[in-house]
Design brief:
- The complex is a heterodimer of chains A (about 120) and B (about 110).
- Helices cover about 0% and strands about 50% of the residues of chain A.
- Chain A contains no helices and eleven strands.
- Chain B has no helices and twelve strands.
- Chain B is globular, with a radius of gyration of 13 Å.
- Chain B has about 110 residues and is mostly beta strands.
- The N and C termini of chain B lie far apart (about 40 Å).
- Classes of the chains: A mainly beta (about 120), B mainly beta (about 110).
- Chains A and B meet through strand 4, strand 5 and strand 10 of A and strand 6, strand 10 and strand 11 of B.
């Protein structure tokens, strides 16, 4: 059984460029969550999606950030016009519909560095 | 709003010694409680969770935690640690009816030989 997969594992961008982070949930999981971990801090919730729907985006910055989870394919977290403060580890988690958020399975993360 | 406080940012212990990592939470509604472990450059792995029932919860790798509602705590314990337990440990809560996890700042556990 493949776990949550994220790619790329490391991403370097210059200020002003776009970053696209991909997350493939565990097979059969229809719930996806994105979290951000700034250096020396805990994880902060960003967004919760189900297939084709954003359910809770209360943790998403109002500008430059967007997320999607299409019917086919991975979930994408997109950051436009990156700034140095976006440098962080971005973790995706998934859960099956039967468990809701009880057990979230985390991917290895994408470490974004903005130069 | 919910919040989680991990009282120690770093905990150094000797191998085979017992350890307790402290976690307190604040919430006006009922919560579910979790402990996750993060090994260097990896994602988070669930150690244990409290949803309901017995307040003493046993998890993987010999860890256990006790839910104390009156003290709003969920401390993590292990009677004898190993070098391989060196990692970052995160306490998290989820309120009933919501999906997102709220994490503490993490505690770095370092095991010395």
């Amino acid at each position: 059984n493949a776990g949550v997969m994220q790619n790329p594992r490391h991403l370097v961008r210059r200020r002003g460029q776009e970053a696209r982070l991909r997350c493939s949930p565990v097979k059969g999981h229809s719930h996806v969550y994105w979290y951000r971990q700034l250096p020396e801090e805990g994880l902060k919730f960003m967004v919760y999606l189900q297939k084709e729907n954003i359910i809770d985006e209360s943790g998403m910055p109002k500008e430059r950030f967007s997320a999607e989870f299409p019917k086919e394919g991975p979930s994408i977290l997109r950051i436009q016009q990156v700034v140095r403060g976006d440098s962080a580890a971005y973790f995706c988690a998934s859960s099956p519909p039967s468990q809701g958020g009880d057990t979230q399975y985390f991917g290895p993360g994408t470490r974004l560095t903005v130069l | 709003a919910q919040s989680v406080t991990q009282l120690d940012s770093q905990v150094p212990v000797f191998e085979e010694a017992p350890v307790e990592l402290r976690c307190n939470y604040s919430s006006s509604v009922s919560v579910y409680l979790f402990w996750y472990v993060q090994y260097p450059n990896q994602g988070l792995q669930l150690l244990l969770k409290y949803l309901s029932g017995s307040t003493l919860v046993k998890g993987i790798n010999g860890f256990e935690a006790e839910f104390n509602k009156s003290q709003t705590s969920f401390h993590l314990r292990k009677p004898s640690v190993h070098i391989s337990d060196t990692a970052e440990y995160f306490c998290a809560v989820r309120i009933q009816g919501a999906q997102k996890l709220v994490f503490g700042q993490g505690t770095r556990l370092t095991i010395n030989p």
